[in-house]
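Researcher: I've got a protein sequence and the SMILES for zinc ion. Could you write out the 3D structure of the bound complex as C-alpha cells? I'd like something to compare against our soaking experiments later this week.
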Amino acid sequence: MAKECPSCAVAVDDKAETCYICGYEFPRQKMSIKIVVIVLVLVFLGMLVRILMNVLD
Ligand SMILES: [Zn+2]
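Model: Sure. Here is the predicted complex with zinc ion in place.
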C-alpha cells in the first residue's frame, strides 16, 4: 500500500511517517482517531445538555 504526499505528490510507503523526498510529516492515524473520539464525546455532551435543558423547562 502507498499513499500520496500532499506536498510533492510522490507515492510513499503507507507506514512512512515522513516523505523521503520533501520531508513532509504525515499526521499520525492514532492521533486523528483520538480527535474523532473527542469530537463525538463533545457532540454527545452537547446533546445531553440540550435534553437536560428541555427536561428542566
Ligand atoms: Zn513529499
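Model: Residues 29-56 form the longest helix (28 residues). DSSP finds one helix and two strands in the chain.
Researcher: Great, I'll pass this along to the crystallography team.
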